[in-house]
Write a structure and sequence with these properties.
Layout: H1 7-15, H2 19-37, H3 51-58, H4 65-73, H5 75-95, H6 99-116, H7 128-142, H8 149-161, H9 167-176
């Protein structure tokens, strides 16, 4: 094809379009979760750099101060919940395992952080949590159709649905010429 890509090449590129986003969000959330879990100052109810001090500092500027109050009832527990949530979301996203559920979890974490921690950022686009929230939406809609545990599991289910024989067995028989 003169002067451009073939239709097939454009389709192939489109199929892989969400992989960079998946990698970025997965790595970022795994890193964020591990960073919180390994920072003893963060997982404290008070003091510089703690989740408790952070929640206290944003309480009066949050869109949902009630959500901050809920976190302040047990700041250490809330810190662990956020850290393990980020870790689970990141791993699920990287592996493509329950990818839509992981993306929904990531969007809920990002939404809660936007409505509390970064709500007061002015102009609004200085707060990164809104950007993360929007970045999760394509993954909620599309899932992880390529290079993922979800795709592998779906392929196995489709193979078994075609007569109960796994596709790997069909390929094995076809190679032998039987």
């Amino acid at each position: 094809m003169a002067g451009g890509m073939s239709h097939r090449a454009r389709e192939d590129m489109g199929r892989y379009a969400l992989l960079p986003l998946r990698l970025f969000l997965g790595i970022t959330f795994v890193y964020a979760g591990l960073d919180k879990l390994t920072d003893p100052a963060f997982l404290a109810s008070g003091g510089q750099g703690s989740i408790g001090a952070l929640m206290e500092s944003v309480r009066d500027t949050a869109a949902l101060p009630g959500l901050v109050d809920l976190a302040l009832k047990s700041p250490v527990g809330f810190g662990y919940a956020i850290a393990f949530g980020e870790l689970a979301v990141g791993l699920g996203t990287l592996l493509g395992l329950f990818a839509r559920i992981a993306a929904a979890g990531g969007s809920l974490i990002s939404l809660s952080l936007w409505l509390t921690v970064s709500w007061a950022a002015t102009p609004y686009y200085y707060g990164n949590d809104l950007v993360y929230l929007m970045a999760w939406l394509p993954l909620i809609l599309a899932g992880a159709p390529l290079l993922s545990a979800d795709a592998a599991l779906a392929g196995r289910r489709r193979g078994r649905a075609r007569g109960g024989v796994p596709l790997s067995r069909v390929a094995q028989v076809a190679r032998r010429g039987r």
